[in-house]
Automatic annotation (TrEMBL):
<dbReference type="InterPro" id="IPR000182">
    <property type="entry name" value="GNAT_dom"/>
</dbReference>
<keyword id="KW-0012">Acyltransferase</keyword>
<dbReference type="InterPro" id="IPR050832">
    <property type="entry name" value="Bact_Acetyltransf"/>
</dbReference>
<keyword id="KW-0808">Transferase</keyword>
<dbReference type="InterPro" id="IPR016181">
    <property type="entry name" value="Acyl_CoA_acyltransferase"/>
</dbReference>
<dbReference type="Pfam" id="PF00583">
    <property type="entry name" value="Acetyltransf_1"/>
</dbReference>
<dbReference type="GO" id="GO:0016747">
    <property type="term" value="F:acyltransferase activity, transferring groups other than amino-acyl groups"/>
</dbReference>
<feature type="domain" description="N-acetyltransferase">
    <location>
        <begin position="3"/>
        <end position="172"/>
    </location>
</feature>
<protein>
    <recommendedName>
        <fullName>N-acetyltransferase domain-containing protein</fullName>
    </recommendedName>
</protein>
Amino acid sequence: MNFHLTTATPADAPRLTALVNSAYRGDASRQGWTTEAHLLDGQRIDEAGMREMLAVPAAAMLLCLGENDELRGSFYAHPNGNKMYLGMLAVAPTGQGQGVGKFLIRAAEDYGRQHGCTTSKMTVISVRPELIAFYERLGYRLTGATESFPTDPRYGIPRQPLTLLVLEKPLD
């Protein structure tokens, strides 16, 4: 597959919101292995929330585009001091398993290095062992730290108590 990278602008908010929600929630998400539809009801993000993320200084929503500039995936990268926070990796459900996620993770780590970050950090829902294993294969390690799952219904309504596990990777 031929991919190219670009950075989202506010004009991308509608299609980004649709991509993220299709990757995480609802029937479309069940076509891929990254679905959270069995864990949470509701949307993953709304367009206003996406616009807020796009407006964060120094942060970027990295886009993986395929042929004809088709949006294949996205990943949020936010440098903060020496740490790069990565979040909301989304790959179109029908295009998973084709290297889009790895392409975006490498791009986000490069973005962190360009911004002086020495560590990459992300959180993953604790009941997602297959996702944790995916990140571990890419060099991320569980730190032992946890974070509370957001309670704002704009990000979904948990069907069970959820905890976020913190994973980190040195950016050498």
